[in-house]
Amino acid sequence: EKSRIGVTGLAVMGANLARNIASRGVPVAVHNRTYAKTEQFMADYGAEGDFTASESVKDFVDSLETPRKIIVMVKAGKPVDGVIEELTPLLDEGDIIIDAGNSHFPDTVRRTAECEANGLRFMGVGVSGGEEGALLGPSIMPGGDPAAYEEVREIFESIAAVVDGTPCVTHVGPGGAGHYVKMVHNGIEYADIQLIAEAYDLLTNVVGLDAPAVGKIFEEWNTGDLDSFLIEITGKVLAKTDARTGRPLVDVIVDQAGQKGTGTWTAIDALQLGIPLTGITEAVFARGLSALRSERKAAAGVLAGPTPSKEVDESLVEDIRLALYASKVVAYAQGFAQMRAASVENGWDLKLGEMATIWRGGCIIRARFLNRIREAYDEHPDLDNLLMVPYFTEAVANAQDAWRRVIVKATEQGVPIPAFSSSLSYYDGYRRERGPANLIQGLRDFFGAHTYKRIDAEGSFHTRWAQDGTEVEA
Ligand code: NDP
């Protein structure tokens, strides 16, 4: 009997996806470049389901029913191309290659075209939820040919996380749309995490609480509007005591953040689209600054500035919660505006409400809050900005005094809050009917004759700055 679907790449993600699929009673073919890993997989989990293991790619391909459906779960980048190259001559017209790793969406666009040229169908599928999600129910963001998606829809729906009876998977759009949405998901994850880190910094260094006390506050926050996986695990991480020293574990962890690049991709894409994406981009920059540990150490004794008071002021705790919530609303508003712009640019027709729906469970940014976003797009599918729906307009209106107080306090005490403060600047900029870009245009016209528009006349104008100072129509 042939297997219904195959998985190649049996590191944590591939192994757990294969086990998840098999747990639904689906026969799964498994393969890994290094055969020892396949053998180990079979020894550990072979009895869990109907697995067929192969050593060679050819046997793996032959063990699949047609049209073949092959999930590629290998290291993102060149290895994906290598695997596609190996598979291509062994496959038949109409077979489906499903790249479920964290590929960069332009690569997915290219691979889709290459596979199509070879008579194959290609899907770029974002999978979020880490190891545990892959095994128990991830959020899945499939992109590519809709007909190809129909071939795997039932399996995907059966393995995805489920929230209120709805599986966290939907066909996102053609070509690179799935990996694009996964990229923005990861970018939003960066912003969420940065905002949490800033709140932790303030609660520690301004409010003067220790890690376990801050952990309790996050636990409490997780019962309200902020209810989410990341807030929940923040409470757990802060509560953890280090076995070696007896101190809170976070106090012995080096303050340098790593990154694999998806936040940077999101920020670069926003720059190219011309979409203001301050929350995610500041989060990437903050990780970059954290990495300059030895420079920071040298600067700490040289550069002047206030030292945080650590004066316990519990009244600030609620202000910080509100500042975190308002900044989070802005970060999501920006991320969704970016997806909307990309959808228009690429003709993807992304249903933004559905993106919020499939992020409610399984993925790292899962949160109660996403229900509100889904409702917003259900009511207004062509919404320009989430801040403009009453729920979010009011949420931020209610938070903004506290948000401003927190930013003033942090600034006075020298605590950096790039994501909190840039989110507020974005908000203040967005709600401003007339900003200072008139002067920018004046300057551009002065040094480069770039012209400007007038508020009282149609057309473009140039002032002859270096000549007689008169205005001419451009
Ligand atoms: P890794 O990214 O660590 O990749 C290891 C796997 O890739 C192994 O099976 C390895 O085979 C295979 N591989 C590497 N190079 C090649 C090659 N040239 N040809 C064939 N196979 C190769 O595994 P993960 O399970 O962590 O992640 C898989 C994908 O899922 C990645 O794209 C990752 O970004 C993404 N992802 C990971 C998440 C996570 O939490 N880890 C969450 C969501 C997505 P071998 O055993 O022979 O070395």
From TrEMBL:
Catalytic activity, EC: 1.1.1.44
Biochemical pathway: Carbohydrate degradation; pentose phosphate pathway; D-ribulose 5-phosphate from D-glucose 6-phosphate (oxidative stage): step 3/3
GO molecular function: NADP binding; phosphogluconate dehydrogenase (decarboxylating) activity
Catalysed reaction, written as an equation: 6-phospho-D-gluconate + NADP(+) = D-ribulose 5-phosphate + CO2 + NADPH
Keywords tagged on the record: Gluconate utilization, NADP, Oxidoreductase, Pentose shunt
One protein family per Pfam: 6PGD
Keyword Oxidoreductase among record annotations: yes
SMART domains: 6PGD (SM01350)
Similarity-based family: Belongs to the 6-phosphogluconate dehydrogenase family.
Name the UniProt record assigns to this protein: 6-phosphogluconate dehydrogenase, decarboxylating
Organism: Pseudonocardia oroxyli
Source lineage: Bacteria, Bacillati, Actinomycetota, Actinomycetes, Pseudonocardiales
